[in-house]
Structures are given as C-alpha cells and as structure tokens.
Amino acid sequence: MLCFYNTLTARKEPFSPLQAGQVRMYTCGPTVYEYAHLGNFRTFVSLDILGRYLKYKGFRLKHVMNYTDVDDKTIRNAQQAGLELRAYTEKFIEAFQVDCRLLNIETPETVVRATDHIDDMAKMVEGLVAQGHAYHSDNSTYFRISSFPAYGRLSRIDLSGMKAGARVDQDEYEKDDVRDFVLWKASKPGEPCWDTSFGCGRPGWHLECSVMSMKYLGESFDIHAGGTDLIFPHHENEIAQSESLTGKPFVRTWVHVEHLLVEGKKMAKSAGNFFTLRDLLKNGSKPSAIRYLLASVPHRKQLNFTFDALHQAQQSLERLRNFQYRLQKETFAPGEDPDLNRRVTEAKQKFEEAMDDDLNTARAFAAVFDLVRDGNTAMDESRFQQGNIKACLEMLEVWDRIFGALPDDDYEKLKESGVNQELPPGQQVFPERISVPRRATRGVVELGQGTPLTLRHETLSDSEIESRIEEREQARRARDFARADEVRKVLDQAGIFIEDTKAGTRWKRK
Ligand code: AMP
Ligand code: ZN
After folding, report:
1. How far does residue 77's CA lie from ligand 1's centre (Å)?
2. Among 202, 322, 397, 454, which is disulfide-ready with 445 (CB 3.0 to 4.6 Å)?
3. CA 97 → CA 15, 103, 447, distances in Å?
C-alpha cells in the first residue's frame, strides 16, 4: 500500500487521492534570481521521482509547478543588473529548463510564472480583505494571523509570544518573527509595480503559490511539495490564506524534502557553499551520475554531498549499465532457470514495497543491486539462460522509468543542451564523447577501444585507469603507437602520471 509521510499530521499515511485515479500535485518551483544549485535539484529530482512513481502506480498525474519570478530576491538582483524584472528572470528560467533536461527531470503538466497571475493575486487579496482576514496598512496589505486559529499547525510553532497586530514585510523570516505577514507590498521607487483596486504594488511570495495552485488544481488538492525550508513560513502562510478564503481544507498531503548538505551545512546561495549543475559539469561530473546520487538517498533523510559519493554513484550506475549490456549482448544457452526468474519477481516485489513505503529509494536500489549480483554470478557460472533475459531487462526498465539514469547519454544530452555555446572555449564541458564504450565478453564487461575520452581526475576509478593502461599496452604490442600515445594523453589530461618500468607500467595520480 502506497504511503507518504505527511508533514501536516506528522505520520506516514496510506495515500489515496481526492478523485479516484487522479493525483493533483503542486510543487513550489525555483526562485529565478540565479542559477539553481544542487540543493535545489535534490528537491526537484526527489519530486520528479514522486511524480514518476505515482504514474507507475497507475495514477493520472496533474502536476503544476511555478517559477517565482517576482519576490524580494528577483527584484533586488534585477535592479543590481540594471535589467527589467522579466528580462532578468528569463535567463534563469531558461537555464533551469536546460538543467532539468540534463538531469532528466520531467516537465510538469503545467508550468506557470507568478507574473502572469497578478490579476488573480489581486482578487485573492480583495477577497481576504472583504472577509476580514487581511487589512491594508501603509499601502501594503497584511494577513491577520489572529483571524485563522489553525495558524501554526503545519510547522508546529508556538504562538504564545506573538504580538497581535505586529507585522513582517520580508518574504523570508524565522519562526521567532511570526507576525501578520505581507500579502501585497507597496512598491519602493524603482521596483516593479502593478495597478490594483487597492493601489499600485507587487505580490508577496506566499500569496503567489496559493493563487497558482488553486487556480490550476482547485481549492482542495492532493499533494503540495517543496524542501523542508519551505514549511515555515511559506507553506504555513499558504494554508492560512487559502483556507481563510475558501473555508475548505487546502491540501491533503504535504511532502517535504530534506536538505542537501555540504560539510554538514545546508547548501544555500546565502551561505556561499553551493555548486550549480554547471560547476559540476565543468569539473567532469556526469549529469546521470548526479541524478543517481540525488535519487539514492530517501527524500526525508539529509544527504551530505561529497565528490567521493558522486564518484561512487557513477560506479554504481556503471554496474547497472554493465548488467544491462551483458543481458543484451552475451549469448546464453537456451532454456530458463526458474530459480533466477523467481529471484526477479522477488526483487520487483521488494522494490515496490520499498517505494510504497514513503519512497524508500535506498531499499529499492538495494533490491535491484541484489538481483544484479545474482544475475552476474549466474552468468559467470553459466547458469543464466535465454529465458532469464526478459525478466531481468524488465526489472531494469522499471528501475529506469522511475529513476531515469540508465541510458549512457550524457554526451548527447549535453550537446543538445547548448550549455557549451554559453561558455568560452577553454571552459567548455565535455567537448568530446564521454560515454564509456562497452564490450561484452564471457564473465566481464571491458572498456572498449578507440573512443577519445575527456573524463577528468575525479571520474576515473582505479579499474578504469588500469583498463586504459591495458589498452595502451595492446596498442603498443600491435605497433599502433599513435593510439598508444592518444591513450597516454587521455590519462595525462585526467591527472594520471604513468611510468614504464621493466616490471610493467606503473601509475599514480598527479
Ligand atoms: P528556491 O529557488 O530558493 O525557491 O528553492 C527551490 C527549492 O529548492 C525549494 O523547494 C527549496 O526548499 C529547495 N531547496 C533549497 N535549498 C535546498 C537544499 N540545500 N537541499 C534541498 N532542497 C533545497
Ligand atoms: Zn511556493
């Protein structure tokens, strides 16, 4: 039975949508004032997996995501850049879309911009004022927290110290600062300004998501999601505004993704401890390995980002690819090993049980890797037969429908993305093919020959280095010195120093 942890009830609960067979879900999208960082993508990859799994379970999914293209931060940065708000945010929306394609994040059915919904926002403000839940003051409009007794239920804050009538104007603030929050802000000179019946101004961040989610999904819907830092004040305020206006429960299940950390601290632009996807690409990392890493830790656990972990993710992914390659290319005896096919059924069951349990991706991965180990052993011991191929391939296909990282297509995706056109020649990422060619033999899958590689230091494992050295040896034995030289250059570029001695070739990392 599919269960999700619901922040609102603080319990794992069986999931069933309001309308049978269809899930309506809203994701708070990126604030497009800068390139998104890997922490942001942890949330977006996790929610992509949630969406894909819902579809896998047979639900029709109506997924809406917004771009926050007007708030304190977008306005501040556009002003600093001397650009109109829309011209400024456009660049980061496009960059986000490119990054999502590289990370194989599916585009939600409906993607909307806050600035395209200003009239709807003004209407919501008017409605809240008319009902006494909001009031105008100094040309801004505030939500009256005391008018909504359930305030604080999602984030479990203590309201006892709150001063009635005190106000907060920023979009982001801490729990100690809980006060009447701003729905609509008076614009300062030079800030964008929209005309409404209650004056010229601009929306506050929290109002935006209430308006866009209810417009496309209705007054009550199934899932609302984002990172845990959005619980307070953003989602708390969304509930207050929306339920005050409609008198109906706003959202059934609140799903929050735990933070990606760097050296124990939340990755954040404000902390300066962040990597964008482009930073990692320049460093030689593959988008598919990044996606794998982000997906491999269940969304309610913090994930500490390290290059070691990314390297391991790359290797684990290669194990899956190699297994798939063997299934497709090796020759097996006719017949079927029934034990092995039972193992596949069992693995699939464990995989689904793990995913049904609040998307426990780590357990789901383990179920598949156990099968890969058994499958590889059966192949090595010549027990694997033709009748076992289909079920194993299907298991990998199921894994990939949800995790989306199996095809070795980073090079093609990067080429198509246009990321390189934006970068000066010296800084281009992966100017050459990076996919690792495979060659199946009985027992092992070896690296093939002849394709230039531009993998850097961090992404060459010891066994990859040794395969390259072996390749160079073979080229030298075949008196193909040009090829041998080429391989040496690749190793050199990857930061590997090699030395030919009487005892053979020795290597070390520079
Ligand atoms: P923002 O662009 O700041 O509005 O954030 C977009 C999404 O990324 C939100 O759902 C945030 O909660 C989420 N987010 C921000 N930082 C992190 C982090 N370090 N780890 C996981 N999610 C994050
Ligand atoms: Zn939001």
Report:
1. 18
2. 322
3. 30, 10, 33
310: helix, strand or coil: helix
Q: Is the CB of 229 under 6 A from ligand 1?
A: yes
Q: How far is the CA of 224 from the centre of ligand 1 (A)?
A: 14
Would you tell me how many other CB atoms lie within 10 Å of the CB of residue 424? 7
Q: What is the pLDDT of residues 73-100, one digit of tens each?
A: 999 999 999 999 999 999 999 999 999 9
Residue of higher predicted confidence among 417 and 245: 245
Considering only CA atoms, which residue is closest to atom 12 of ligand 1? 227
Q: What is the pLDDT of residues 280-318, one digit of tens each?
A: 988 788 999 999 999 999 999 999 999 999 999 999 999
Provide the whole-model pTM.
0.87
- What token pair was written down for 318? 């290669």
State whether the beta carbon of 115 lies less than 6 angstroms from ligand 1.
no
How buried is residue 2: exposed, middle or buried, by Cβ count under 10 Å (0-12/13-18/19+)? middle
**Residue indicated by tokens 């806050």:** 114
- The alpha-helical segments, DSSP class H, found in 455-500 are 462-477, 481-493
Which residue in this structure is represented by tokens 């830790």? 297
Which ligand 1 atom lies nearest to the CA of residue 229? 12
**Residue of 432 and 238 predicted with greater confidence:** 238
Looking at the CA of residue 43, tell me the nearest atom of ligand 1.
22
